Amino acid sequence: MKEMIYSSLMQGIRQRLEEFGLPRIIIALFLVALFVVAPFVDVNVAASLSDIINRFGMNGLLVLAMVPMIQAGCGLNFGLSLGVIAGLLGSTLAMQFGLTGWGGIFGAMAISIPFAVLFGWGYSLLLNRVKGEEMTIAMYVGFAAVMFMSIMWLVLPYSSSNMVWGYQGRGLRTTITLDGYWVKQLSSFLAFRIGRSFVFPTGMILFIVLCCTAMWLFLRSKTGTALTAVGSNPDFARSSGIDINRMRTISVILSTVLGAFGILVYQQSFGFIQLYGAPLYMSFPAVAAILIGGASINKASILNVIVGTILFQGILTMTPSVVNGVLQTDMSEVIRIVLSNGMILYALTRKTGGRR
């Protein structure tokens, strides 16, 4: 009897480990090892943990924006830059109108929604015409949109002295500070400190949890179920009377809106708005994070978002600090670039997810 219980228990553990995936186990163990080594090389563990949580909050919505399109069979959203641009338009217009505090950040979100819906709708029209090649087309769409907006940031009629170039009085600056507007508006809400180094950004994490919960509920609604059916089996969905193109359009619009909200959450924590070429590669870390979390190109969950974001941002935060401590030299930026691009490359070569 004991042997049967033991065998059943071991089989259950083995099955859970296989479902979680060997690569994610290795990455998680490596992250734990970095935390173990950190105190021996004079790395502040509390500050590093606080930084990881803060980075999770900053990037969580951008990773969550991948879920609707993956579930609808549109693949990985390499055109996330469209949502980012919508969020940038919302934030710059909110600053132009002089909105500050809670009115500033939520006003920016409200202003960004029409742009995100419009961009997402146009984006979906294109993707519905290139079924099977969405990820390749999306990448070029994102790049083209960023380059087009690099021109528009110079010619749009902004006039706020906090945003335009001082020597000419027109054209937006490359980097715009949010001081006096809504810097850390979410991060500082109900935030608490433990010791000298650990700060928990309660408001930002609560907002991420709220958005994840809303997405979880949406995917279990009638529309969400139809959307998932389209991604899982388009022929069955079509025979059931589901309008495939409509479901795909809904997923693209929802992903673009989440991308707009995601960059606004990122901005308020970072403290600056970055324009021109800054959004160009923002989709790649989000794609890598959700793939590292266990998603595939046609199936993703909220758990994949959470696990992937924590692992990706954790490795990206801890490795440079620990290596710098070991080598006693500042190589943080070089290490961060190597790690970031290395994990992105690894994730993309494992795009089928699961146990690979």
What is the percent of helical residues?
Answer: 55-70%
Low-confidence stretches: 352-356
Shape: globular
Helical segment tally?
14
Order of H and E elements: HHHHHHHEEEHHHHEHHH
The termini sit apart by 35 Å
Determine the strand fraction and express it as a percent band: under 5%
Could you give the count of β-strands?
A: 4
Question: What order do the strands of the largest sheet run in, or round the barrel if closed?
Answer: 1-4
* Secondary structural class: mainly alpha
Q: What is the C-alpha radius of gyration, as a whole number of Å?
A: 21 Å
Largest sheet: 2 strands, antiparallel
* Mean pLDDT value: 85
Keyphrases for this structure?
single chain; mainly alpha; 356 residues; disordered C terminus; two-stranded antiparallel ribbon
SSE blueprint:
Elements: H1 2-20, H2 22-37, H3 45-64, H4 66-71, H5 81-96, H6 101-127, H7 134-155, E1 175-177, E2 192-194, E3 198-200, H8 202-219, H9 222-232, H10 234-239, H11 244-270, E4 272-274, H12 283-292, H13 302-327, H14 332-349
Antiparallel strand pairs: 1-4, 2-3
Helix pairs in contact: 2-13, 3-8, 3-11, 3-12, 3-13, 5-6, 5-11, 6-11, 9-11, 12-13, 12-14, 13-14
Write a brief structural summary.
The chain has helices at 2-20, 22-37, 45-64, 66-71, 81-96, 101-127, 134-155, 202-219, 222-232, 234-239, 244-270, 283-292, 302-327, 332-349; strands at 175-177, 192-194, 198-200, 272-274. The protein has 356 residues and is mostly helical.
